[in-house]
Write a sequence for this structure.
């Protein structure tokens, strides 16, 4: 039996074969020795065999680290670097909030850059990116904001940023009338691997190449390309990334004579109401946070145009640490509500689901 690198790939030498070789070698050099199951010498050989077995596992890991289908972490980063591809880092969500008061200001109120605001439970904190002034006689002023921490959790629904973390004298309330967007998590191994496999630097004028080129753009998290053969045009829906870079990339790779338009996805806020039973040894607050994260991760990771499937949502919740069972579950997009297996919330090709505020009960 051949082990190591063979025509069939890497074959790891099993522990039994390693131990048998050590026993044969011991007999060859030491003559007749006691190798019975209870012998001290066999126990010594097993100790050595365990170490050799560990080395074989490391050799196998090193072998597969050289293949894009199997490499993970930094090994995958080094492989895709050969193509000039780098792992996309987490990006911060951005948006706009309105600072308000109930009566016109009697003097100018300065709201400094870096003023922090947050969702009601302070789970997601934002800060203003510029100084704004609520002028005398006004009751409100808008300010651009950016999430303090990068990640998809910064993509929150409209009317959820309602807390002034840093109070401003004369300002009574804050709110975001529109959702925040652009927040994305660091690219996973699977996402990076797919982008590398579909990399087509020299290809142009095909749906495949257009999507591949757009996915290379820093900040772009998802792309949906539709062909309208009747009107001979292509419609692209893109989440994340710079408008200018996207436009320039499309111009570079689009088919000659074919109209190509692109748009941002319409965000469909999904609200989940769920009651779960926790495992007895877990704290209810911790389980609630785990369920919240599981719901948000499932919904926010759905690609553009991907439906919210009841069974997949239930599976995500049941996988949350500390959850024993689901007592009741429903999800709604504000128009349609699902509450049974086999049901789903339809998300159109130009839409993308985003997690809203959920109602979670833990018993």
């Amino acid at each position: 039996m051949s082990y190591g690198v063979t025509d069939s790939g890497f074959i790891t030498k099993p522990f039994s074969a390693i131990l048998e070789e050590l026993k044969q070698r011991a007999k060859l050099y030491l003559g007749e020795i006691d190798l019975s199951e209870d012998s001290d010498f066999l126990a010594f050989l097993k100790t050595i065999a365990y170490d050799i077995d560990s080395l074989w596992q490391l050799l196998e890991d090193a072998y597969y680290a050289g293949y894009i289908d199997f490499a993970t972490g930094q090994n995958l980063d080094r492989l895709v670097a050969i193509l000039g591809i780098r792992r996309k880092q987490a990006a911060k969500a951005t948006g706009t909030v309105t600072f308000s008061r109930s009566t016109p200001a009697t003097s100018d109120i300065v709201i400094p850059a870096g003023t922090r605001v947050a969702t009601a439970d302070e789970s997601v904190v934002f800060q203003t990116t510029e100084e704004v002034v609520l002028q005398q006689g006004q009751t409100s002023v808008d300010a651009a904001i950016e999430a303090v921490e990068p990640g998809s959790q910064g993509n929150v629904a409209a009317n959820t940023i309602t807390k002034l973390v840093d109070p401003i004298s004369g300002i009574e309330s804050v709110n975001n009338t529109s959702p925040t967007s652009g927040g994305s998590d660091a690219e996973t191994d699977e996402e990076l691997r797919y982008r590398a496999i579909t990399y087509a630097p020299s290809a142009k004028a095909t749906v495949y190449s257009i999507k591949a080129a757009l996915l290379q753009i820093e900040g772009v998290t998802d792309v949906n390309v539709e062909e309208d053969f009747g009107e001979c045009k292509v419609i692209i829906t893109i989440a994340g990334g710079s408008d200018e870079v996207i436009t320039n990339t499309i111009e570079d790779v689009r088919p000659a004579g074919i109209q190509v338009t692109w748009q941002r996805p319409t965000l469909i806020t999904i609200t989940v109401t769920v009651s779960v039973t926790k495992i007895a040894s877990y704290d209810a607050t911790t389980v609630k946070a785990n369920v919240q994260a599981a719901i948000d991760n499932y919904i926010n990771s759905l690609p553009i145009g991907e439906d919210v499937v009841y069974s997949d949502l239930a599976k995500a919740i049941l996988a949350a640490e500390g959850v024993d069972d689901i007592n009741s579950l429903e999800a709604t997009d504000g128009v349609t509500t699902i509450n049974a297996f086999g049901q789903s919330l339809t998300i159109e090709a130009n839409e993308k689901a985003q997690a809203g505020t959920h109602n979670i009960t833990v018993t």
In short: The longest helix spans residues 40-64.
